[in-house]
């Protein structure tokens, strides 16, 4: 079952976000298997990230690789909100 994951860190800058994505891509980890959508949005210093995943298991497996990168960049992701998808419509 697909899930939505919403990250709302206390603070997240464009520089931190871009650096974390760069490192993940360098390591061949991004975009990960099972991640259908990844969206970063919001105001500078208060960015948010939402993702849609094919399964909770795939998200959790990626999280084990993601968290050390975020910590190294200085991002305190906190506990994300996770929801089961009821309906998904694509254009």
Description:
It is globular and about 35 Å long. By secondary structure, it is α+β, with helices and mostly antiparallel strands. The model has no long low-confidence stretch (mean pLDDT 97). It has two helices and four strands, in the order βαββαβ. It has a four-stranded antiparallel β-sheet with strand order 2-3-1-4, with helices on one face. The protein has helices at 14-26, 56-73; strands spanning 3-7, 35-41, 48-53, 81-84. The chain has one domain: 2-Layer Sandwich (Alpha-Beta Plaits), CATH 3.30.70. Helix 1 (14-26) crosses helix 2. Helix content is 34%, strand content 24%.
Kindly estimate the percentage of residues that lie in beta strands according to DSSP.
Answer: 15-25%
Strand order of the largest sheet: 2-3-1-4
Task: Estimate the helix proportion, in percent.
Answer: 25-40%
> Averaged pLDDT, please?
97
Q: Name the CATH class.
A: Alpha Beta
- Multimeric organization: single chain
User: Distance between termini?
Assistant: 20 Å
Q: Which structural class matches the secondary elements?
A: alpha+beta
Radius of gyration (CA) equals 13 Å
Tell me the layout of helices and strands.
Elements: E1 3-7, H1 14-26, E2 35-41, E3 48-53, H2 56-73, E4 81-84
Antiparallel strand pairs: 1-3, 1-4, 2-3
Helix pairs in contact: 1-2
């Amino acid at each position: 079952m697909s899930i939505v994951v919403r990250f709302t860190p206390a603070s997240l800058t464009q520089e931190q976000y871009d650096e974390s994505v760069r490192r993940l891509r360098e390591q061949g980890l991004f975009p990960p298997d099972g991640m259908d959508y990844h969206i970063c949005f919001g105001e500078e210093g208060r960015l948010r990230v939402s993702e849609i995943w094919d399964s909770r298991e795939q998200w959790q497996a990626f999280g084990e690789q993601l968290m050390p990168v975020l910590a190294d960049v200085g991002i305190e992701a906190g506990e994300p909100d996770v929801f089961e998808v009821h309906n998904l419509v694509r254009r």
